[in-house]
């Protein structure tokens, strides 16, 4: 049987690109055709993509929905037409639509880094820290809040946290500027937490710009080659990140979709574990680096 | 040759048909009725705005704020609905919200027109500023989270079918008809060409040039609000991230349709073709599973190519 | 019938008093010529009467009733219709739409009001027929020549059935035939009791139609006289006051032996002109006479390379020019002052200074470096020689009156020290004094060896200025005349053709 | 009054100073030298492009492709570096990559100019298409992953200090000086104003109008590439998502600085003020910890307000 699966991401970045690679691997393995779409974080574009795939008559749609509610109507339409919907990374508030939902819990992403920060604050900063966060509120408010709040929640366990600034900056070059501004405004800043990959890169570079290596420490999200490199750099800026496993997530999502389309049972909810990478565990970081290289 | 003559008169139409024929054979699922209706529904929102934009551009102005205008009016409608439903029930609340959005965007159009009139503020810059302001306002209304105050049945407006045709297509056709009539059979419509072609001459002929421009801007505001409500209905919520970047796509459609950016020249029929052109490209490339990266390259190149074709023919004709 | 009265009417632009306390009564049913040198405030007066600009001070009375126009539409409502000095048509729209612009006739079907297109085109056709003008009402105005556009402008004014008709230099783009037609129309209107104000720099026209002459100088009313009771000299004295007027100097009769600096052979650019051949000698002023649309402008522009010709040869200093283009011709020492200064002659937002050194940039800045020191001499020379009335040379050129702007166009080219200069309607909209200055410049330059081609719709000027006259008709070169033994009537007949 | 006169002559300067004074008192850390240097470094990239854009706009054209131009040139440089480093070592590779980016964007500027010349293609639409094409091309080069081929020391270019001043500020000053010289002391500069003010008159005055416009576009391409390399150095990688949306911000800066969108009018000094204005706003609001949503509203409103101020003064002066 010739199955066609539509895989929809909502952004063009390394994370989703890796997910797409996982999807491709799974589709290839199963001999299915994969159609790739990008909704650009816009509900309207997502609708027109889904409708186009419905018109084309795909067997399954694998999607990271832009919004928990806004994405329901088109996916409901897809389900009505007998298309199997699998959500990953983010989902919708109507559980009856997706046959399966795979994610790393966004809050876990924040929590895991938060745990590392708690230990760091307790051991290195004497139980008190001035913290700034960089999110992506204006882009994806729900996810941004989950990560930032998850981080703060756990980090507080390491002592007293003074949140001195909460700003948005998710592109690296914006983050360089915003973090730079925050650093000058707060000479006694200890920690910057950035909730995505671009923000983390920018925050690290901003600390380097300001020559505050060893004074300000960065915690972040995502396990990209560049960030892993930063963890191994000797200037001691980036302390820890939490990597999702996008390749695995994409792979499993498509596998679920194909299984559902073939009438097999699939799990309703699958948690793809996240992976903390800390400067204190250099061996673990190097191992992850090898894994990354094996993907390319 | 007859064909050459036909090509010279209807270049965009012929390119569109050629593309269409190609996709019928090459793109799986393209030729199905479902997919054709799908294309139609997908172009309605941008199309409605593009009809307004055509008037604005012909009058010699521009509106860069339509993208966040859509988001803003969807959010405003959702917010009003949430606040009023306990008192009035859902449908009156939605109606009030939609009207509020139209009034708000029409007022903003009037504001833009007044600044142009009294202080010679280019609409390019006013609406560029408004693009940012409205996006911020939409986020402030929603607090960043989509407002989900609509009853399920409200989705009929954006997603329902009437006699087998998607409901928003009727609205699209109605707006097209209205603008077509305005531009060809009313003095407002003809004044648009005059003020865009030669402002001073229009003024000396006793045309109220500012009323004309302002009306075009306000109408575009109303159309933008209609598109915003339709989008809100499609996604059953008011979302601040809807329609980001639409302004440039809408303007592309208008210009592909042969309207001159410098004002004074253009037709609403052309804009319809331009909107269809862009809609078919996006749909076709998705069905052909062209990679996102190549889609960007192809789309940009086709926009340049289509407008270039128009201009080459015009240059040739003038020789 | 409309009597117009102005009371202490004034308009100031910044510090410039464009019109200064003008109080006067223009009697009903007559044609009032409005005279004055460039920048004396004529257009400003007309603009206030037509609701285009609001007075700074003073009031306007129509038939004894004070009126306040908030825009041109208010003026139309009172029957005040204007043909403005600068053309004001919408190039993209058709002739008929332009005629009815702002007041398209409507009809009603099924309760919906819509434009009655058949009436728009039908009535325009009829109107143009009564004026004996052969232009298709469907033609986009942008396709017409300047002269044809001027006629449409006049047709538009006629179609209003005005009570007060204001004409600001309506003939500056017209040739004799069209001028005659216009005057016939004006006489008909006068019979119907229409009051008219008529601005022109052509003294000879006054005798044909003016009943009274009102003269402005520097924004102030000098006085008004019955035309029959005055002489040209008297009017010119009123216009210029005690300032001495330039007179035509004895023209040095040049030996015609000088080698030709420009040779044109078989030049064709359809449909404007075809098979044009002539020589231009150094120091010669060659006139090209012709009626409206004879193809003179097109010919000059083709030689200059503004629109390359279809075929034919252009030989400058014995060398054939391949693919002529403005830049190449400028480098060869040819200059061209265009007939429509607003569209083609001036950079409006630029300063007077920059406009005067535009064409000569390659000379001023041989290696691409511009310094104020290098520019200033040329700018100062032209301001002085052409007597350009400027506040500061750093003001934008748009702040000058029409005539002074024209001088800037010419000054820009004189600064290139051209070997050959084409003057296309150089006296358009220029007052008598300035006109004489411009002619004097043409002669002086010719005496220094500059070959000139002079095109003007005013045949008297062609006779006065030129050493030799070529006659063009419908794109063909039909004859050559010697101005010293040609009368105006002969020249006119040659331009008109046998019929 | 002297102050009123001063205000009429230097409105933007005075608004800037007022804003500055306010921030000195209200925003923690604003008045520190570190922060001032910070502002300077933050504005360099956009500033460099804005100087080119000023020339383009004065010449009567526009360039909407600079945003993805930045991303494209960063990615191209990173890609060339990755491919050549094994053979030539990092620094020659980076140099070749940077030059390749400049040549590529200059060529694209020439292409845009040629289309304008031969087919009367509005640069608005050509560069709008290029905006999409270049973004696609950047993604194709990187395959979606940031290319991290730069050695650590390369970050000096974008992030380093020389004599206590951020290094990119020197480049910024150099580009400003160059453009200032070009616009005020060369026939090219004079021609820019002429072709933008009246194309036909400039052409008939023997100015090579197309060379002038094309050169402005090509120079902007080169400046965009420089900014792209600086950004790549700051983030130590070539990323296809860099600089998204910059085109509109850069144009805002130019227009805030008093350049007319219709061509023929403007100064490079004004653009410097415009760039500073936007830079100070962003910095100030970050220091004041204004929420992202309010930042959008305030930024848009300030852009409108600033340009409006300029226009009000101009309108007043003309009365
Ligand atoms: N918009 C304006 N801004 C500033 N000054 C102006 C403006 N319009 C006219 N002026 C000035 O007002 C004065 C009168 O100009 P006006 O156009 O009325 O002269 P005119 O008599 O019609 O001259 P011409 O015969 O050259 O057309 C001139 O000095 C002119 O420079
Ligand atoms: N843009 C144009 N498109 C089509 N035809 C034109 C255009 N410009 C001029 N013509 C035609 O070319 C012919 C010559 O016009 P041209 O302007 O050279 O005449 P002219 O003798 O200079 O008269 P004037 O300048 O007084 O109108 C006319 O028949 C005119 O209608
Ligand atoms: Mg005048
Ligand atoms: Mg002529």
From TrEMBL, chains B, D:
Principal localisation: membrane
Q: Which GO terms describe its molecular function?
A: transmembrane transporter activity
Regions crossing the membrane: 12-33, 39-57, 93-111, 123-141, 161-183, 215-236, 248-264, 271-290, 296-313
Tell me what topology the record assigns in the membrane.
Answer: Multi-pass membrane protein
Q: Which InterPro entries match?
A: ABC_transp_permease
Judging by the UniProt lineage, the source's domain of life is: Bacteria
Its subcellular locations are:
Cell membrane
Which GO cellular component terms, listed alphabetically, does the Swiss-Prot or TrEMBL entry include? plasma membrane
Record key words, sorted: Cell membrane, Membrane, Transmembrane, Transmembrane helix
The reply on keyword Transmembrane helix is yes
Residue runs in coiled coils: none
Recorded protein name is: ABC transporter permease
Please give the organism. Answer: Roseitalea porphyridii
From TrEMBL, chain C:
- Compartment(s) of residence: Cell membrane
Concerning SMART domains, the annotation shows: AAA
Keyword entries, A-Z: ATP-binding, Cell membrane, Membrane, Nucleotide-binding, Repeat, Sugar transport, Translocase, Transport
Q: Which GO terms describe its molecular function?
A: ATP binding; ATP hydrolysis activity
Membrane topology recorded in Swiss-Prot or TrEMBL: Peripheral membrane protein
Pfam families for the chain: ABC_tran (PF00005)
Domain ABC transporter residue range list: 4-243, 253-499
- Main location per UniProt? membrane
Q: Which CDD domains match?
A: ABC_Carb_Monos_I (cd03216), ABC_Carb_Monos_II (cd03215)
User: What cellular-component terms does GO give this entry?
Assistant: plasma membrane
Q: To which protein family does this belong?
A: Belongs to the ABC transporter superfamily.
Q: What is this protein called?
A: Sugar ABC transporter ATP-binding protein
Please give the organism: Roseitalea porphyridii
Provide the organism lineage as a comma list.
Answer: Bacteria, Pseudomonadati, Pseudomonadota, Alphaproteobacteria, Hyphomicrobiales
